[in-house]
Design a protein that fits this description.
Strand order of the largest sheet: 2-1-3-4-5
Protein name: Class Ib ribonucleoside-diphosphate reductase assembly flavoprotein NrdI
Number of strands: 5
Organism: Enterococcus pseudoavium
Helix content: 25-40%
Radius of gyration: 15 Å
Strand content: 15-25%
GO molecular function, one term: FMN binding
Structural class: alpha/beta
Largest sheet: 5 strands, parallel
Length: 149
């Protein structure tokens, strides 16, 4: 399974690293369990044409407000949106996983929800901040199931 992600504060990177390690453990227990290949997208990333299916992981960074009538503008993660738009890379995306802080109410995972709407792929899972062990297990199963569809 392939993951493209962007990490601003390091929370998404930490979660994807733990998820990748969990996938390795599951693969060791049963070789039919898929491994995860993760690629971080940043301002310095070269844009490539994606030829294999992948999942996108995005944190939520927005311009203030409440996310309903204001403060729903994506900031800091725009390079991921541009990467998905590049040569229609988004067409290879099987779904988006969002993260954020639940204290922000409606804005929680709003970037992932906006990506789902804009690109037409499903919003498949969420986790808060760096996630938990249970989040790794749950999201790995979701990715595995979606890959098999």
């Amino acid at each position: 399974m392939n993951i493209l992600y962007i990490s601003i504060s390091g929370n998404t990177r930490a979660f994807v690293e733990r998820l990748t390690a969990y996938a390795e453990e599951q693969h060791q227990l049963d070789s039919t369990n898929p491994l995860i290949k993760a690629k971080e997208i940043s301002e310095n990333s070269p844009f490539n044409v994606e030829t294999k299916h992948f999942f996108t992981f995005v944190p939520t960074y927005l311009e203030g407000g409440n996310g309903v009538d204001n403060g729903d503008t994506e900031i800091l993660t725009e390079v991921m949106r541009e990467y998905l738009e590049y040569e229609d890379n988004y067409k290879q995306c099987l779904g988006v996983v969002g993260s954020g802080n639940k204290n922000f109410n409606y804005q929680y995972c709003l970037t992932a929800k906006q990506y789902s709407e804009a690109f037409g792929f499903p919003f498949i899972a969420d986790y808060e901040l760096r996630g938990t062990v249970a989040d790794c297990q749950r999201i790995y199963q979701i990715l595995k199931d979606k890959s098999a569809d």
